[in-house]
Specification:
Blueprint: H1 3-12, H2 19-32, H3 38-41, H4 60-66, H5 73-85, H6 110-119, E1 121-126, E2 129-130, E3 134-136, E4 142-143, H7 145-161, E5 167-172, H8 178-183, E6 189-195, E7 205-206, E8 211-220, E9 235-239, H9 243-254, E10 260-264, H10 267-275, E11 281-285, H11 286-296, E12 305-307, E13 314-321, H12 326-342, H13 344-353, H14 370-377
Parallel strand pairs: 1-5, 1-6, 9-10, 9-11
Antiparallel strand pairs: 2-3, 3-4, 6-13, 7-13, 8-11, 8-12, 8-13
Helix pairs in contact: 1-2, 7-12
Protein backbone atom coordinates (compact mmCIF):
# COMPACT_ATOMS: atom_id res chain seq x y z
CA UNK A 1 0.00 0.00 0.00
CA UNK A 2 1.53 3.29 -1.03
CA UNK A 3 1.71 6.27 1.26
CA UNK A 4 -0.63 8.27 -0.96
CA UNK A 5 -3.21 5.44 -1.03
CA UNK A 6 -3.06 5.16 2.74
CA UNK A 7 -3.52 8.85 3.18
CA UNK A 8 -6.41 8.82 0.72
CA UNK A 9 -8.04 6.02 2.71
CA UNK A 10 -7.80 8.06 5.87
CA UNK A 11 -9.38 10.97 4.07
CA UNK A 12 -12.30 8.78 2.90
CA UNK A 13 -13.17 8.15 6.56
CA UNK A 14 -13.86 11.84 7.09
CA UNK A 15 -17.67 11.40 7.08
CA UNK A 16 -17.47 8.65 9.74
CA UNK A 17 -15.19 10.21 12.33
CA UNK A 18 -14.92 13.50 14.03
CA UNK A 19 -12.55 16.21 12.69
CA UNK A 20 -10.38 15.98 15.83
CA UNK A 21 -10.08 12.19 15.56
CA UNK A 22 -9.29 12.35 11.87
CA UNK A 23 -6.65 14.98 12.51
CA UNK A 24 -5.03 12.76 15.13
CA UNK A 25 -5.06 9.75 12.80
CA UNK A 26 -3.55 11.85 10.03
CA UNK A 27 -0.76 13.10 12.27
CA UNK A 28 -0.04 9.58 13.48
CA UNK A 29 0.20 8.37 9.90
CA UNK A 30 2.49 11.22 8.93
CA UNK A 31 4.78 10.40 11.81
CA UNK A 32 4.97 6.83 10.43
CA UNK A 33 6.02 7.98 6.94
CA UNK A 34 9.79 7.97 7.58
CA UNK A 35 9.56 4.19 8.28
CA UNK A 36 8.02 3.37 4.91
CA UNK A 37 10.21 2.40 1.95
CA UNK A 38 11.69 5.45 0.26
CA UNK A 39 10.20 4.57 -3.13
CA UNK A 40 6.71 4.51 -1.65
CA UNK A 41 7.04 8.00 -0.23
CA UNK A 42 8.85 9.65 -3.10
CA UNK A 43 7.30 12.84 -4.49
CA UNK A 44 8.20 14.87 -7.62
CA UNK A 45 11.27 17.10 -7.00
CA UNK A 46 10.74 20.88 -7.15
CA UNK A 47 13.63 23.43 -7.21
CA UNK A 48 13.04 25.88 -4.40
CA UNK A 49 14.45 29.38 -4.04
CA UNK A 50 15.24 28.59 -0.40
CA UNK A 51 16.84 25.26 0.77
CA UNK A 52 14.65 23.10 2.99
CA UNK A 53 15.66 22.97 6.64
CA UNK A 54 16.98 19.52 7.65
CA UNK A 55 16.35 17.75 10.90
CA UNK A 56 19.20 16.48 13.02
CA UNK A 57 19.94 12.77 12.72
CA UNK A 58 18.41 12.18 9.27
CA UNK A 59 19.99 11.81 5.85
CA UNK A 60 19.60 14.39 3.11
CA UNK A 61 17.13 12.27 1.14
CA UNK A 62 15.09 11.37 4.21
CA UNK A 63 14.90 14.96 5.42
CA UNK A 64 13.75 16.09 1.97
CA UNK A 65 10.88 13.56 2.17
CA UNK A 66 10.12 14.00 5.85
CA UNK A 67 10.19 17.78 6.04
CA UNK A 68 6.41 17.66 5.83
CA UNK A 69 6.22 15.38 8.85
CA UNK A 70 8.17 17.79 11.03
CA UNK A 71 6.24 20.93 10.12
CA UNK A 72 3.21 22.60 11.60
CA UNK A 73 -0.44 21.65 11.17
CA UNK A 74 -0.76 24.03 8.21
CA UNK A 75 1.80 21.92 6.35
CA UNK A 76 -0.22 18.77 7.24
CA UNK A 77 -3.31 20.35 5.74
CA UNK A 78 -1.37 21.09 2.57
CA UNK A 79 -0.26 17.43 2.41
CA UNK A 80 -3.84 16.22 2.88
CA UNK A 81 -4.96 18.48 0.03
CA UNK A 82 -2.24 17.02 -2.17
CA UNK A 83 -3.42 13.48 -1.45
CA UNK A 84 -7.05 14.41 -2.26
CA UNK A 85 -6.23 15.92 -5.67
CA UNK A 86 -3.85 13.09 -6.47
CA UNK A 87 -0.76 15.20 -7.28
CA UNK A 88 1.25 17.77 -5.33
CA UNK A 89 1.17 21.39 -6.54
CA UNK A 90 4.57 22.92 -7.24
CA UNK A 91 5.24 26.31 -5.67
CA UNK A 92 5.74 29.19 -8.09
CA UNK A 93 9.30 29.48 -9.30
CA UNK A 94 11.33 32.42 -8.02
CA UNK A 95 13.94 33.93 -10.36
CA UNK A 96 17.46 34.05 -8.95
CA UNK A 97 18.60 37.45 -7.68
CA UNK A 98 20.30 39.65 -10.23
CA UNK A 99 24.07 39.77 -10.00
CA UNK A 100 26.05 42.98 -9.50
CA UNK A 101 26.31 45.36 -12.46
CA UNK A 102 29.53 44.99 -14.35
CA UNK A 103 29.80 48.77 -15.12
CA UNK A 104 28.78 51.58 -12.75
CA UNK A 105 26.09 53.88 -14.12
CA UNK A 106 27.44 57.27 -15.21
CA UNK A 107 25.47 60.22 -13.84
CA UNK A 108 23.46 62.11 -16.46
CA UNK A 109 25.39 64.97 -18.00
CA UNK A 110 22.54 67.03 -19.41
CA UNK A 111 22.42 68.76 -22.81
CA UNK A 112 25.17 71.34 -22.20
CA UNK A 113 27.86 68.94 -20.99
CA UNK A 114 26.92 66.42 -23.68
CA UNK A 115 27.23 69.02 -26.43
CA UNK A 116 30.52 70.37 -25.05
CA UNK A 117 31.89 66.81 -24.92
CA UNK A 118 30.74 66.06 -28.47
CA UNK A 119 31.91 69.32 -30.06
CA UNK A 120 34.96 70.10 -27.91
CA UNK A 121 33.78 73.72 -27.71
CA UNK A 122 32.38 75.86 -24.87
CA UNK A 123 30.88 79.30 -25.63
CA UNK A 124 31.43 82.16 -23.19
CA UNK A 125 29.69 85.53 -23.45
CA UNK A 126 31.58 88.61 -22.21
CA UNK A 127 31.10 92.38 -21.93
CA UNK A 128 33.72 94.44 -23.82
CA UNK A 129 33.69 97.47 -21.48
CA UNK A 130 32.36 96.56 -18.03
CA UNK A 131 35.49 97.07 -15.97
CA UNK A 132 36.44 95.37 -13.64
CA UNK A 133 34.03 92.48 -14.30
CA UNK A 134 34.49 91.91 -18.02
CA UNK A 135 36.52 94.01 -20.46
CA UNK A 136 39.26 93.76 -23.09
CA UNK A 137 42.98 93.92 -22.40
CA UNK A 138 45.64 95.34 -24.74
CA UNK A 139 45.49 92.15 -26.85
CA UNK A 140 41.68 92.42 -27.06
CA UNK A 141 41.25 89.36 -24.89
CA UNK A 142 38.38 89.36 -22.35
CA UNK A 143 39.58 89.67 -18.74
CA UNK A 144 38.01 90.66 -15.43
CA UNK A 145 36.53 89.35 -12.22
CA UNK A 146 33.57 87.50 -13.77
CA UNK A 147 35.67 86.28 -16.68
CA UNK A 148 38.19 84.76 -14.26
CA UNK A 149 35.43 82.91 -12.42
CA UNK A 150 34.15 81.57 -15.74
CA UNK A 151 37.65 80.45 -16.68
CA UNK A 152 37.80 78.47 -13.43
CA UNK A 153 34.58 76.77 -14.51
CA UNK A 154 36.15 75.99 -17.89
CA UNK A 155 39.14 74.44 -16.10
CA UNK A 156 36.69 72.18 -14.28
CA UNK A 157 35.12 71.24 -17.60
CA UNK A 158 38.50 70.27 -19.05
CA UNK A 159 39.19 68.00 -16.11
CA UNK A 160 35.68 66.54 -15.77
CA UNK A 161 35.25 65.79 -19.47
CA UNK A 162 38.91 64.85 -20.01
CA UNK A 163 39.25 67.48 -22.74
CA UNK A 164 42.59 69.24 -22.17
CA UNK A 165 42.28 70.93 -25.59
CA UNK A 166 38.75 72.23 -24.99
CA UNK A 167 38.19 75.24 -27.25
CA UNK A 168 36.77 78.41 -25.69
CA UNK A 169 34.69 80.48 -28.09
CA UNK A 170 34.28 84.05 -26.77
CA UNK A 171 31.28 86.09 -27.90
CA UNK A 172 30.77 89.81 -27.12
CA UNK A 173 27.35 90.67 -25.67
CA UNK A 174 25.60 93.85 -24.62
CA UNK A 175 22.87 94.79 -22.16
CA UNK A 176 20.16 94.09 -24.72
CA UNK A 177 21.58 90.87 -26.22
CA UNK A 178 22.99 88.91 -23.26
CA UNK A 179 19.71 87.47 -21.92
CA UNK A 180 18.28 86.32 -25.28
CA UNK A 181 21.60 84.67 -26.18
CA UNK A 182 21.49 82.59 -23.01
CA UNK A 183 17.83 81.73 -23.49
CA UNK A 184 18.23 80.56 -27.11
CA UNK A 185 21.30 78.45 -26.28
CA UNK A 186 23.92 80.54 -28.07
CA UNK A 187 25.92 80.94 -24.83
CA UNK A 188 26.92 78.30 -22.32
CA UNK A 189 28.20 80.90 -19.82
CA UNK A 190 27.25 84.58 -19.70
CA UNK A 191 30.14 86.19 -17.85
CA UNK A 192 29.33 89.84 -17.31
CA UNK A 193 27.36 91.97 -14.86
CA UNK A 194 23.93 90.37 -14.87
CA UNK A 195 21.58 90.61 -11.90
CA UNK A 196 19.69 87.49 -10.88
CA UNK A 197 15.98 88.30 -10.62
CA UNK A 198 12.88 86.15 -10.24
CA UNK A 199 11.54 87.48 -13.53
CA UNK A 200 14.70 86.60 -15.45
CA UNK A 201 14.80 83.17 -13.84
CA UNK A 202 11.68 82.27 -15.81
CA UNK A 203 13.73 82.05 -18.99
CA UNK A 204 17.26 81.22 -17.78
CA UNK A 205 19.17 79.91 -14.79
CA UNK A 206 21.83 81.60 -12.66
CA UNK A 207 24.87 80.41 -10.77
CA UNK A 208 25.27 81.15 -7.10
CA UNK A 209 25.80 84.86 -6.46
CA UNK A 210 29.28 86.17 -7.29
CA UNK A 211 28.88 89.86 -6.38
CA UNK A 212 26.37 92.12 -4.62
CA UNK A 213 25.84 95.68 -5.83
CA UNK A 214 23.32 98.44 -5.06
CA UNK A 215 21.82 100.96 -7.46
CA UNK A 216 22.59 104.59 -6.69
CA UNK A 217 22.18 107.99 -8.34
CA UNK A 218 25.07 109.98 -9.77
CA UNK A 219 24.61 113.70 -10.44
CA UNK A 220 26.73 116.55 -11.82
CA UNK A 221 28.09 119.72 -10.27
CA UNK A 222 28.06 118.44 -6.74
CA UNK A 223 24.28 118.17 -6.50
CA UNK A 224 23.64 115.36 -4.01
CA UNK A 225 20.38 113.51 -4.76
CA UNK A 226 19.34 110.58 -2.59
CA UNK A 227 16.02 109.49 -4.12
CA UNK A 228 14.06 109.56 -7.36
CA UNK A 229 11.37 111.74 -5.82
CA UNK A 230 13.89 114.60 -5.81
CA UNK A 231 14.09 114.32 -9.59
CA UNK A 232 10.41 114.88 -10.32
CA UNK A 233 9.89 116.16 -13.85
CA UNK A 234 13.60 116.01 -14.73
CA UNK A 235 15.51 113.82 -17.25
CA UNK A 236 17.22 110.76 -15.76
CA UNK A 237 19.38 108.31 -17.73
CA UNK A 238 20.00 104.60 -17.26
CA UNK A 239 21.21 101.76 -19.47
CA UNK A 240 18.83 99.89 -21.73
CA UNK A 241 18.10 96.25 -20.81
CA UNK A 242 19.12 96.63 -17.14
CA UNK A 243 17.27 96.21 -13.86
CA UNK A 244 18.17 99.85 -13.12
CA UNK A 245 16.10 101.23 -15.99
CA UNK A 246 13.27 98.84 -15.10
CA UNK A 247 13.29 100.14 -11.53
CA UNK A 248 13.36 103.73 -12.80
CA UNK A 249 10.33 103.15 -15.03
CA UNK A 250 8.38 101.32 -12.31
CA UNK A 251 8.91 104.01 -9.63
CA UNK A 252 8.21 106.78 -12.12
CA UNK A 253 4.85 105.22 -13.00
CA UNK A 254 3.86 104.23 -9.47
CA UNK A 255 4.61 107.61 -7.94
CA UNK A 256 3.64 109.69 -10.98
CA UNK A 257 6.95 111.56 -10.89
CA UNK A 258 6.88 112.72 -14.49
CA UNK A 259 10.58 111.81 -14.95
CA UNK A 260 11.74 111.81 -18.58
CA UNK A 261 13.64 108.55 -18.96
CA UNK A 262 16.70 108.60 -21.24
CA UNK A 263 18.21 105.26 -22.29
CA UNK A 264 21.92 104.71 -22.95
CA UNK A 265 23.03 101.87 -25.20
CA UNK A 266 25.59 100.82 -22.57
CA UNK A 267 27.07 102.28 -19.38
CA UNK A 268 29.72 104.48 -21.07
CA UNK A 269 27.05 105.87 -23.42
CA UNK A 270 24.73 106.62 -20.50
CA UNK A 271 27.55 108.39 -18.68
CA UNK A 272 28.18 110.58 -21.74
CA UNK A 273 24.50 111.56 -21.73
CA UNK A 274 24.95 112.74 -18.15
CA UNK A 275 28.15 114.62 -19.00
CA UNK A 276 26.55 116.37 -21.95
CA UNK A 277 23.64 117.63 -19.86
CA UNK A 278 20.96 115.61 -21.65
CA UNK A 279 20.27 113.94 -18.30
CA UNK A 280 20.51 115.38 -14.80
CA UNK A 281 21.12 112.08 -13.03
CA UNK A 282 22.37 108.60 -13.88
CA UNK A 283 20.82 105.60 -12.11
CA UNK A 284 23.11 102.55 -12.13
CA UNK A 285 24.88 100.01 -9.90
CA UNK A 286 27.31 101.70 -7.52
CA UNK A 287 30.36 99.66 -8.55
CA UNK A 288 29.81 100.55 -12.21
CA UNK A 289 29.37 104.26 -11.45
CA UNK A 290 32.64 104.31 -9.51
CA UNK A 291 34.36 102.39 -12.29
CA UNK A 292 33.17 104.87 -14.91
CA UNK A 293 34.46 107.81 -12.86
CA UNK A 294 37.81 106.10 -12.32
CA UNK A 295 38.21 105.52 -16.06
CA UNK A 296 37.86 109.24 -16.83
CA UNK A 297 41.18 109.96 -15.15
CA UNK A 298 42.14 113.62 -14.91
CA UNK A 299 39.72 114.66 -17.65
CA UNK A 300 36.85 114.71 -15.16
CA UNK A 301 37.49 116.19 -11.71
CA UNK A 302 36.12 113.92 -9.03
CA UNK A 303 34.27 116.77 -7.34
CA UNK A 304 32.20 117.35 -10.48
CA UNK A 305 30.17 114.20 -9.88
CA UNK A 306 28.55 112.86 -6.73
CA UNK A 307 27.24 109.35 -6.05
CA UNK A 308 24.37 109.09 -3.56
CA UNK A 309 24.94 107.48 -0.18
CA UNK A 310 21.61 105.72 -0.24
CA UNK A 311 21.21 102.47 -2.16
CA UNK A 312 17.87 102.10 -3.93
CA UNK A 313 17.92 98.41 -4.90
CA UNK A 314 20.06 95.33 -4.20
CA UNK A 315 21.62 93.64 -7.24
CA UNK A 316 22.98 90.07 -6.82
CA UNK A 317 25.22 89.37 -9.84
CA UNK A 318 25.52 85.82 -11.19
CA UNK A 319 26.68 83.87 -14.23
CA UNK A 320 23.88 83.26 -16.73
CA UNK A 321 23.15 79.62 -17.63
CA UNK A 322 20.75 77.40 -19.55
CA UNK A 323 17.47 77.18 -17.65
CA UNK A 324 16.82 73.48 -18.35
CA UNK A 325 20.20 72.02 -17.44
CA UNK A 326 20.57 71.46 -13.67
CA UNK A 327 23.61 69.20 -14.19
CA UNK A 328 25.60 72.04 -15.77
CA UNK A 329 24.48 74.52 -13.11
CA UNK A 330 25.61 72.06 -10.43
CA UNK A 331 29.09 71.94 -11.99
CA UNK A 332 29.31 75.75 -12.14
CA UNK A 333 28.09 76.16 -8.56
CA UNK A 334 30.47 73.46 -7.33
CA UNK A 335 33.42 75.31 -8.86
CA UNK A 336 32.52 78.70 -7.37
CA UNK A 337 31.63 77.23 -3.98
CA UNK A 338 35.06 75.58 -3.95
CA UNK A 339 36.69 79.01 -4.36
CA UNK A 340 34.57 80.32 -1.48
CA UNK A 341 35.38 77.45 0.87
CA UNK A 342 39.10 77.52 0.14
CA UNK A 343 39.27 81.29 0.65
CA UNK A 344 40.80 81.78 -2.81
CA UNK A 345 37.93 84.11 -3.67
CA UNK A 346 39.52 86.80 -1.47
CA UNK A 347 42.70 86.92 -3.53
CA UNK A 348 40.65 86.93 -6.74
CA UNK A 349 38.53 89.78 -5.43
CA UNK A 350 41.57 91.77 -4.37
CA UNK A 351 43.12 91.40 -7.82
CA UNK A 352 40.14 93.13 -9.48
CA UNK A 353 38.81 95.52 -6.86
CA UNK A 354 41.74 96.55 -4.68
CA UNK A 355 44.76 96.44 -7.04
CA UNK A 356 45.89 98.16 -10.21
CA UNK A 357 43.88 96.66 -13.06
CA UNK A 358 45.55 95.19 -16.14
CA UNK A 359 45.36 97.35 -19.27
CA UNK A 360 44.26 100.43 -17.33
CA UNK A 361 46.23 100.80 -14.11
CA UNK A 362 43.05 101.92 -12.31
CA UNK A 363 42.63 100.89 -8.67
CA UNK A 364 39.02 101.04 -7.52
CA UNK A 365 40.05 100.56 -3.88
CA UNK A 366 36.78 98.80 -3.05
CA UNK A 367 36.91 96.44 -0.06
CA UNK A 368 34.61 93.44 -0.14
CA UNK A 369 31.15 94.37 1.11
CA UNK A 370 29.48 92.74 4.10
CA UNK A 371 26.78 91.39 1.75
CA UNK A 372 29.33 89.56 -0.42
CA UNK A 373 31.17 88.23 2.63
CA UNK A 374 27.86 86.78 3.77
CA UNK A 375 27.45 85.03 0.42
CA UNK A 376 30.98 83.60 0.63
CA UNK A 377 30.16 82.18 4.07
CA UNK A 378 26.71 80.95 3.00
CA UNK A 379 26.53 80.53 -0.80
CA UNK A 380 23.12 81.21 -2.33
CA UNK A 381 21.54 81.71 -5.74
CA UNK A 382 18.52 83.55 -4.35
CA UNK A 383 17.17 86.54 -6.32
CA UNK A 384 15.49 87.90 -3.18
CA UNK A 385 17.11 91.24 -2.17
CA UNK A 386 16.24 90.59 1.48
CA UNK A 387 18.64 87.63 1.45
CA UNK A 388 21.57 90.05 1.09
CA UNK A 389 20.68 92.69 3.66
Amino acid sequence: MTALNALAALTSLAPLVSRAALGGMTLAFLAFLPLLPEAACAAPHVQSAKPAATRTGTSASTSASSTVAGTSASTSASTSSTATTGAPKAPPSVPPPAGPSTAPARPPEGPTLTRIRDTGVVVMGYRPASLPFSYLDAQLKPIGYTVELCERVIDTLRARLKLPDLEVRRVAVGSATRLPMVTNGTLDLECGITTNTAERARTQAFSITIFVAETRLMTRNGERVQSLTELRGRPVVSTIGTTSIQHLAAVNEQQQLGIRIVAGLDDPDAFQLLRSGRAEAFLMDDVLLRSLLAQQGGSVPAQDYVVSNRGLTVEPYAIGLNRDDPAFKALVDETITGLYRSGEIFSIYKRWFASSLPASGINLQMPMSAALRKVVAQPTDSPDPARYR
